[in-house]
Fold this sequence. Notes:
Strand 3 and strand 4 (about 45-60) form a beta hairpin. With about 120 residues, this protein is of the alpha+beta class. The protein has helices at about 30-35, 70-75, 85, 100-105; strands at about 5-10, 20, 40-45, 45-60, 80, 115-120. It contains 4 helices and 6 strands. The model has no long low-confidence stretch (mean pLDDT about 95). It has one domain (about 5-120).
Amino acid sequence: MGLDISLVKIEKKETDEVSWLLVEENPELEEKFSSYKLKRHFECPNESDYEDVYYYTEISYQRKGVVAAFYTTVQNDLCIVEKEEAEKLLPLMELERKEDFKTAFIDKFVTGETVILISW
């Protein structure tokens, strides 16, 4: 698995089969997005369950272009909900990616509507 950085818009409706986050695994979304929670039906062999989820639509995606310090500075499986925190990622981008990251992530980030998801 490699680096994945996504800017996503949290939606008040179901989006698709794969674009959702479990509420219990993303407590940082509670304050700004508690009214966006929806029930999702999960079916496993011999059982069925409903879980609270947040659905989202992807706006921007990046899978490379960070400096080595990114991995020691940024926590894996991070969800950024404030624009000020998102702006702190800019110095961790490779020089040739900074402007693209600013345009695709920072400029499009709207606190209370979007979040940045980071994993590797």
